Amino acid sequence: MNQKDFLYKFHKHLNKPYSSFKELIEDALILMEKELGVDKIYFFNWYPQEEILSLEMLCSGGICTPLQEEIYLNKKSTLRKNLTVRTPYISKFMEYTTMYIEVEWNSVSEKSVKKHGVLRIERTDKNKPFTKKEAMFANEIAKELSHNMSNAQSDQYYATRLKRVDALNELSKIFATSMRIKDSVGYILSGIQKYFGFDRVRLYLEDKKAGEFFDGISVDLSSKITNIKLKNLTKQERDFISGMQNKFNAGSTESYIYLPLKVKQKQLGFLVCDNLLSRVNISYEDFIYLRQFSSQIALSLDNALLFDKVKELSNFDELTGLAVRRYFDQRLKEEVYRSKRFKTPFALIVADIDWFKNINDKMGHPAGDWVLKKVSEIIKNNLRQSDFCARYGGDEITMLLPRTNQKEAKQLAVRLQKKISELKMPKQFFVDTDIEISVSQGVSVFPKDGKTYTDIIKKADKALYFAKNRGRGGVFLYEEMMAKSRKKGVIRKK
Amino acid sequence: MNFWVLLDSGTNTIKNFEKLLCKFKSENPTIPVNLKVLTRQDMWKSIYTFKRYLKPQDAPDVIEIPHYWTTLLSQSEIIENLSSLDPKISVKSFLPQVQAHCYKSGTKNIYSLPWWMDVLAIHYRVDHLKAVCKNPQKELETWNGLFAVCEKLKTKFKAVEAYYPIQNADWRGSISIRSIFPCLWSKGVGLFNENFTKSMVGNKKFKEIISSYLKLATNKNIPVLKERGSLGNMMLGKASMILTRRHGLDMFESTKQKFKVETTKFPMTGNKEVNYLSGINLAIASGGKNKKHALIFLKWLAKPGNQKEYAKSIEAFPTSTTAFNNLIKASPTRFHIYKEIVKNSKVLPNILVCGTAVEILNKVLALNVRDIARGKYKEKNLFDMLDKSCQEINYLLSLYKK
User: Fold this and answer.
1) Which residues of A touch B44 (CB under 8 A)?
2) Minimal CA separation from B344 to chain A, in Å
3) Which of B399, B400, B401 to probe by mutation at the A interface, max A CB count within 10 Å?
4) Per-residue pLDDT tens for A241-256?
5) Which residue among A421, B83, B135, B258 has its CA within the 20 to 30 Å range from the CA of B209?
6) Which whole number is the average pLDDT over B342-355?
């Protein structure tokens, strides 16, 4: 094949979409090695500012291997001078015949010279040095390679942009469909990590009252979503975040991006993405894409926060901060299912404030409210994190205690009773005399006292009623109530 | 099944693996293996993203990793728990120095198996060294001794074009932090303190030792970033020594007719002899499709016979205790010193941030080596970069603990 034909075939072969430059270079080097009849061809990337040639790949015997080698070319070096004037350079330092050729192409349409790297071509047979004709032919092939690399560069640029746009579309869908704040944030962060490939993505939310950032969610390399409690962070990370807080403009450095999230100038939180572990540089392009997206993220967050707030208001009693009856019933049903499935017990305590009507009638509703609030506070503060309580009725409070047996439930009830009895009415509410504050409590356990949620409530209620009739301020297990009742002959044994 | 490997033996990597894979194919014809070679840098970048970006058929099944990456990759769920794939899997048959790096730190779960290892030593041309030293082994025992020998050699061979006393074993032609560890450890410093809560990179001793190592380049004892051929080459008489982790058994045995090569321990900077042992392990990637085949392949590679064969082809050492001891026994006398070198060796810690710390320091060294090549190197710049690196590593330690 003559040289012209080969150049045409070479260009045609490489004129196709490649997923990376490496693939294109591989293809090109294999063809070149065969056509030029050489033993090795290396492709170097050229970094003119650092004055470094950095090896990308070697082709030898039709096999391409990625390699690492760096050569510093100062301005005075003969190699550098030859490359500058675009002349193939035959090296005198090598053990065998070596030629360097710059891979560049003069784009007439763009009126610019595109430089893509340098080839090093080696022939181990010392008796066959490169001729001038061979050097010129190699130079022509290098130009053709550069031409193809320019085309591939454009293709890859658009392919990357398309990929990013696709990613942003996908993320938009996620943002649009997530409503609850917990779900939203988790999906948002996972989506960002997936499409942008960061080591870690973290979102910190703002505490409006304190005016500082608190708590957040993080997605790490293993794609696990974890909650971040600010108090659990190390001093270094807190300092890092405080540093971020003061930077209200979005910015990026090589290994991390920080973006404030704002809706109508109101700052909701802060997004931090980093590659601190992998040290992979974050491109400016990625930063721009995310920044453009940040307002959408902020809006989605705002919606989710609002949704959660509404839900919260409908699920919680405004006076006591306890859950409302409807919500408690739902939780109780879930607990029955869970306990049946995993064969674990749970306990239900129903507490009723003694002489509550009296308090309201004699001291006024503000006094009644105060009592309700204080009793609720004591109950909330003495429950475990896994327990759940609600304002079931006017002055009735229920407590759901998962994985709790009779003994443990009674111990808690007795403890609550003692603490509540220590409450002192504020003087402002006094009319004639002080009033003692107490609660009566009935306790039932699953599955011993009942296997359905209505049964459990009924039994606890009965125990409560029994306690009330026994002089207020008492605690009775349903089982105890039954035993005492049998003794008295109130309930006849079947 | 896809097998991603590191550039174990430069341009010969593919050739060396192909021999091994042919053997595997003959014993396991139903398990085809596709090889992909990556530089260490590319492997480092790829491990973070292959689960997300690659289609399952392109993702690796078995990967070759530096052994100190095991905790990082296991914590990030990038590699599989081998103990759960095969509860009987054990690392007892491997050298004690490499066993700890098979586990996820703080657990008894095995995540990778030892494959091969190499360890830093000096090989020198006896003819060259005898021309300038009475007792080369003795004179090369200390770091100052090495420098003194280099000066004598430069004087002796000043007429030889492109001569350097020490051949640069680094493929990039640069200097890696992994070459400097024996110098640091001999003086009692390392990357981290004992509890791995703080980095020692900003420590005065640490910085001075790095600076001292770079003096090998600034004093023109070792070439950096030079065109190949002018790198100073022992075989061509353009260098007299090489500081390398490879044993060079085949290469140096072939020169027996022309010149003899001896091996000695890495020179000590302090009172302690501590050598750097670098291990390479095999792991199963969690994104791969063929975990069953991957396990069969992994266990086959880890067999003493296969380890020995592969390690020999790349002039490294097998990690199986039996294979290692047999190799020493069967080798020329020059080799026997390796038993002692391995015995007194240390490895990088298997903690989550170790890989990143090495990357950070290699970047610092690469920048400073470029400055040396340009004639613009300043010790102050090096120290400033090391201080900054220390802060970065400390921050990572606070985030990721062990």
Assistant:
1) 278
2) 31
3) B399
4) 666 554 444 555 567 8
5) B135
6) 92
* Residue B263 phi, psi (nearest 5): -120, 140
Do A61 and A192 have their domain in common? no
The pLDDT value recorded for residue A231 is 65
Give pLDDT, residue A246. 47
3-state secondary structure of B338: helix
Q: Which residues of chain B lie closer than 8 angstroms to A70, CB-CB? A: 172-174, 225
pLDDT digits (tens, 9 = 90+) for B283-296: 999 878 888 999 99
Identify the pLDDT of residue A178: 56
Look at residues B192, B187, B213 and name the one whose alpha carbon lies nearest to residue B202: B192
Same domain, A62 and A188: no
The pLDDT tens digits of the residues spanning A293-343 come to 787 788 877 777 776 667 666 788 888 989 999 889 989 999 998 888 888
| pLDDT for the residue A77 | 78
What 3 state SS string does A337-381 have?
HHHHHHCCCEEEEEEEECCHHHHHHHHCHHHHHHHHHHHHHHHHH
| Residue ending a domain, choose from A123, A157, A191 | A157
Identity of the residue in A71, A93, A280 whose CB atom sits nearest the CB atom of B225? A71
**Structurally, how many domains does chain A consist of?**
3
ipTM of the complex: 0.85
CATH numbers and ranges of domains, chain B: 2-117+278-346 (3.40.190.10), 121-275+350-400 (3.40.190.10)
Residue B133's CB is within 10 A of a number of other CB atoms, namely: 18
CB A53 within 8 A of CB B353: no
Q: Is residue A315, in this structure, part of any structural domain at all?
A: no
Contact status of A234 with chain B (Cβ, < 8 Å): yes
CB contact under 8 A, B356 and A91: no
